[in-house]
Amino acid sequence: MADKHPYVSGRGNLVRVITHFRRSFPGTVSAETLKKLGFAPRNESYVLNVLRFLGMIDQEGKRTDVATKVFNFHEDTAFAQGFAKLVKNAYRDLFELHGENSWELDADSLITFFRSADETTAIVGRLQAGTFQLLAAFSGHGDMPTPRSGGAKAGVRSPKEATPKHKDKQKKAFTPTPPPRVASGVETRNFGLTVRIEINLPADGDQETYNRIFKSIRANLLNE
User: Fold this and answer.
1) Among 25, 120, 140, 181, which is least packed, fewest CB within 10 Å?
2) pLDDT tens across 9-47, in order?
3) In terms of Cα–Cα distance, which of 218, 5, 10 is closest to 132?
């Protein structure tokens, strides 16, 4: 198995590893290293096989000098050119057969090559082809896939999208309903009774007149 072309079942794992190593490449890479980084769960051995095959780490998992030089390139174009050399050296049998056209081979052509070279099944050959195409993308040939973040899921709206609608519903649910009005001028609120009486006093009335009016109110309304 060691001399066969490696593959990964989930290409996103390899994308995350290489992308992270461009920012910070550990001196030693092992399955435990990948677990601590949260990359390639239960698939660490497949990713390590690819890294060894490319010459990025040795058999003991130590970062190689040639990989250090490549991953120290900050500019994308320089990195792609350096990474392409790693890929060409690792897949030299493919490039000896197809030359520079190897970068542009379609999936079927790549599957045919890997199945013939390694005597693999159709499934493994497809995974080998997909792995090479991903490495070619890092080398500047083809579209680079974007890795998913751990918390994002397809079809699920972000909190910012969901919050406004939720707030609207809450606002409607808790808006108090004004109490009904009674035609006689009596208002009800929270099971209480409020009576509003409007008194028009005669402008030419004397003190005796006012006393009779307030005495009548006290006798007929306030003491009821």
Assistant:
1) 181
2) 888 889 999 999 999 999 999 999 999 999 878 889 999
3) 5
